[in-house]
Amino acid sequence: MAQSESHPMPCASEHPRLAIATRLHLGQSSHPPPTQQLAETLSNFAKLAASVNADIAVVAVDAEDKLEGYSLVAEVEGICHRINEQIHDRNRDPKQQPCQDNLQQQPSRIHVLPVQPWGKFIPALNAIVAYSARQQAQCLLFASAEVSIQGCVMERMWSEMNLEDTLVVGAALQGHHHQTPPSQTNEIEVELTGRTCPWNTFALWNLPKLSLTGFLQVSEGLHATTGEASAGIEEVCTIATLQRIFPQHTVKAKLVKICPPAVVEWGQDFNDDEARREWHERKMRSKEVRAKNQLDLLGLRGVVIHC
Predict the structure, then answer these.
(1) Which superkingdom (predicted)?
(2) Whole-prediction pTM value?
(3) Do both 298 and 211 map to the same domain?
C-alpha cells in the first residue's frame, strides 16, 4: 500500500510498543536438538529482536516430557540465561550504548515462557498473547525460529500497520498464494484462505484487537467432525471471526510482498530428521483444507488485502 500523509511510516524509534515471540517445541522430532543448534537459534532470535527494535522478547517452550531424560525448558532457560547475561553486560558498557543518531536499541532480554499442556498450537499462542498484553505491548510480532530478515523489512510492515483499522500484517513467504495488485491501486482484496492469509511464521498483530478473542480453539483440532487433521492455520478463523464481529474495514488483514533488497528468509533445515521434514511438508500441503474445514464449522468467511 502506498504511504499516505495521514498514515506516515513510523521510524524505528517511533513504533508502538512491540513484543516479538517465537515458539520452541520438539514436534515430531525423534531425538533432542543439538545444544549448539538450539543456542544458535536463540542467539539469532535475540539478534532478530534487536533488529526489529522489540521492547519485549518472549520464547514459549513446550514444557511436556516428550523425550525420556530430556527437558527442553531447562535447556532453553540455560541458554537464554547466558544470552541475557551477555545482553546485560553490553547494556552496561558505555562503548556499546547507542548514540542518538542510531535508531537500533539495545537488545531486549529474552523471557522464557513454559507452556503445559502444549497441545497442538493454541495454548502456546494464547499464552504469548496474554503475556505480551500484560507487558502492555501494542503490537505482537510472531516469528518462526527459522526466520531471519535483511534490509528494511519492518519499515515495510510498519507502513501497513495502522492501529485504528488493521488487525494483522504478514510477510508473503514461500508457499503463499500472493496476488500482485494492479499498479493503479497498489492493493487487491482476495478471499481469506489458508494460502492467502498472513502466517505466524512472520506476522505483526495489533495486540488490542487480537486480545479481544485470542486465537480460537477451533484451530486446536478438537472438534469431532474434523479432528486433529484440521488443527493449525489459526490465523484464518481469528481473522474471519473478528471480521464478522466488527466492520471489515476496522480489522484489515494484509499480506505484504517484501521486495529486495529487503528479504525475509525462512530456513528449512531439519538436520536429517526425516520425521520432522515429512511432518512439515504435510503441514504445508494441507493449509487450504484445514482452513476451509474450520471456516465451514463456524460458518465464516473473510477477506485479505494483498499489497
Answers:
(1) Eukaryota
(2) 0.88
(3) yes
